Structures are given as structure tokens and as C-alpha cells.
DNA sequence: GGGTAATGAATAA
DNA sequence: TATTCCTTACCCA
């Protein structure tokens, strides 16, 4: 579930429960055995997120770079501190897996499986397990997972566009404006381009464009400066909500009923995302789905004319 | 039990 | 533009 907000939340979780601790690193699945051995037993010094990338800095200037890709996920067990006042601890995002573990234990009728035990046995294909005395973090299905040096971290960072969290400055906004407004590329593609702006994925892309009432096919250079600045500021705004709540809430400012429903059900959460064929919440026109660079793009052809 | 989609991006061509 | 990689959840039977 990784757009920028998730990655920032995960980095915050590591900051809370891992930074300053000696960390045992292993690869239960085996595919990251060498990398895990490099950092095993080192103390975590810093946790950073930029866009969809996370960097964990250990002693000796060794960095673990993680990119979750489309289905990577971290699960936390044990001591999992709340990271914002508005959300449960991140461990709750791992709750489905926890429930599945409970089901498995029940169906297998193995009373000796102690679900409260620490550390819990790894379930599934755990590429990396990071563990302190009190907390376990399991990573599955990442697109990138590697131990690198500071120079390589800098190389990765150099090709990332501004992230509103690390870069909420007028200069960052100007950089975003300039890179959008010089390109003939459809704005719907530009928003997904991590070298132009960090952290936006397929959900936020569709929702940002709808909120701006912008046609996704509009060439970047044809979007007015005011509109581009509004896009940046809306991303700043939505990302903050996402980090605080742990949800991609884009229908804020609506009635309390609508907002409550959005928090409760995914199907009531978005303006256009995954609403192909359903009536637009504003004008009742059928929401359209089309493939743009092989990703599903949802938009309202009437409001985003 | 099988098939598919999924909040992503690198690479080849 | 097409292919490849990574893993799980959900839907259907």
C-alpha cells in the first residue's frame, strides 16, 4: 500500500522503535541473507523517507535502501509505538496478517503455538526481519532492498523530485512548477514521474487531478502556473493528511457523513479512483477508466474536461 | 485450488 | 510499448 504517505509512516515507526537500538537483521526467506549479514548487530542511527524510498542508516555509514514497489509491505510486532495522535500504531496495518496467523493456528489445532510469544515466527516470504529487544519488523515483496554506501544514497536522492515533507519550501514548489510547465507530456504522466515530484502514485494522481478539475491529458506546458502551484499545494496538503491518518483521504471538507464513510470503507473513499462506470460524485457523469502508460487512470470526462 | 489484480519502476527494444 | 520482477488478497469454483 505504498504511496508516499505510507513510506513516511514506516520511517516514523522505525524512528520511534528502532533508532538508537542495536538491530538483529536476518532474511528468513533467504534471498537477502548476504545483505542482512552486513548490518546484523549494528545500531540504527537514522530513518529517512523521500517519496517512496526509505533509507535506514546503520553504524559505519551503511544504509539499507528499501523500495516497496507495488506490493511490498512491512509488518511490525511487539512494541509498536503510536506515530501520530490521529492513527493507530502501524502494527495495525499488519493486522490482517496477524488475524490470518490466528486462523492458521486454530485450524491446525496447534495449541502450543503461542501467538503472544516474542519474537513471532515469520509467516510467508519475509525478505528481511529487523529486530530489537522489543520490536520486530518484517518486510515482504520489496522491489528494492539493498545495503549501500552514502554515495549511492546520494545518487538515488539526486534523481528524485521534491517531496513535500522533506522539501516544503518555495524553492521546491518552483522546481515542481518549472518541471511541469516545460514539458509536452500529459500532466497525468508527469504527476507519476518520481523525478518530477516524489511520492505520488496511482491513487493520489487520479484524486489530485480530479480535485484540480484537470484533464489528465493536458500537456504540462499548457497547465496554467496557478493550476500547477495549486497542484503542488494540494499534494502538500493531502500528503500531510495521509501521514497523520494512515489513509489516503481525499474527500476532506465534505459533510461529516461523507468523511466518516470515507474513513470506514475504501469504496466510499475516493472521488474517482476505482470508480469506473459509477456516477461522478459531483456531476453524475460515468467515471472513465483508461490505460495511461499501462496504469489505470480514472477521471470524470465532464468535470475534468 | 486457480486466476487475477494491486497504491511501482527498471529494462529492453 | 512490452516485459520482467516481487508477494499477497480476493474472487471464483
From TrEMBL:
Phylogenetic placement of the source organism: Bacteria, Bacillati, Actinomycetota, Actinomycetes, Micrococcales
EC number(s) reported in the record: 4.2.99.18
GO molecular function: class I DNA-(apurinic or apyrimidinic site) endonuclease activity; damaged DNA binding; oxidized pyrimidine nucleobase lesion DNA N-glycosylase activity; zinc ion binding
GO terms classed as biological process: base-excision repair
Keywords of this entry: DNA damage, DNA repair, DNA-binding, Glycosidase, Hydrolase, Lyase, Metal-binding, Multifunctional enzyme, Zinc, Zinc-finger
Domain Formamidopyrimidine-DNA glycosylase catalytic span(s) in chain numbering: 2-119
Xref: InterPro entries: FPG_cat (IPR012319), FPG_N (IPR035937), H2TH_FPG (IPR015886), Ribosomal_uS13-like_H2TH (IPR010979), Znf_DNA_glyclase/AP_lyase (IPR000214), Znf_FPG/IleRS (IPR010663)
Similarity section: Belongs to the FPG family.
Keyword Ribonucleoprotein among record annotations: no
UniProt KW Metal-binding keyword: yes
Protein name: DNA-(apurinic or apyrimidinic site) lyase
EC primary class: lyase
Residue stretches making up the FPG-type domain: 271-305
Cofactor(s) needed for function: Zn(2+)
Superkingdom of origin organism: Bacteria
Amino acid at each position: 500500500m505504498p504511496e508516499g504517505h505510507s513510506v513516511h509512516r514506516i520511517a516514523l515507526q522505525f524512528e520511534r522503535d528502532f533508532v538508537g537500538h542495536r538491530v538483529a537483521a536476518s532474511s528468513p526467506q533467504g534471498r537477502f541473507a548476504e545483505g542482512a549479514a552486513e548490518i546484523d548487530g549494528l545500531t540504527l542511527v537514522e530513518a529517512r523517507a523521500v517519496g517512496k524510498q526509505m533509507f535506514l542508516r546503520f553504524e559505519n555509514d551503511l544504509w539499507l535502501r528499501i523500495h516497496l514497489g507495488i506490493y511490498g509491505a512491512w509488518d511490525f510486532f511487539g512494541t509498536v509505538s503510536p506515530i501520530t495522535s490521529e492513527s493507530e500504531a502501524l502494527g495495525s496495518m499488519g493486522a490482517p496478517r496477524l488475524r490470518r496467523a490466528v486462523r492458521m493456528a486454530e485450524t491446525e489445532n496447534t495449541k502450543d503455538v503461542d501467538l503472544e510469544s516474542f519474537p513471532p515466527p515469520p509467516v510467508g516470504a519475509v525478505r528481511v526481519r529487523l529486530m530489537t529487544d522489543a520490536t520486530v519488523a518484517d518486510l515482504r515483496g520489496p522491489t528494492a532492498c539493498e545495503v549501500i554506501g552514502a554515495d549511492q544514497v546520494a545518487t538515488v536522492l539526486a534523481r528524485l523530485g521534491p517531496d513535500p515533507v522533506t522539501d516544503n519550501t518555495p524553492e521546491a514548489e518552483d522546481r515542481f512548477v518549472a518541471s511541469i510547465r516545460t514539458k509536452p507530456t500529459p500532466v497525468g504522466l508527469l504527476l507519476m514521474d518520481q523525478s518530477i515530484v516524489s511520492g505520488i502514485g496511482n491513487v493520489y494522481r487520479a484524486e489530485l487531478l480530479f480535485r484540480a478539475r484537470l484533464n489528465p491529458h493536458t500537456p504540462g506546458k499548457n497547465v496554467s502556473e496557478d493550476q500547477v502551484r495549486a497542484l503542488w499545494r494540494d499534494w502538500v496538503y493531502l500528503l500531510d493528511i495521509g501521514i497523520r491518518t494512515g489513509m489516503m483521504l481525499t474527500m476532506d471538507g465534505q459533510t461529516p457523513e461523507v468523511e466518516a464513510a470515507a474513513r470506514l470503507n475504501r469504496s466510499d473513499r475516493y472521488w474517482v479512483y476505482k470508480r469506473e462506470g459509477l456516477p461522478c460524485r459531483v456531476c453524475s457523469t460515468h467515471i472513465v477508466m483508461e490505460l495511461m502508460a499501462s496504469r489505470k487512470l480514472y477521471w470524470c470526462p465532464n468535470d475534468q474536461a
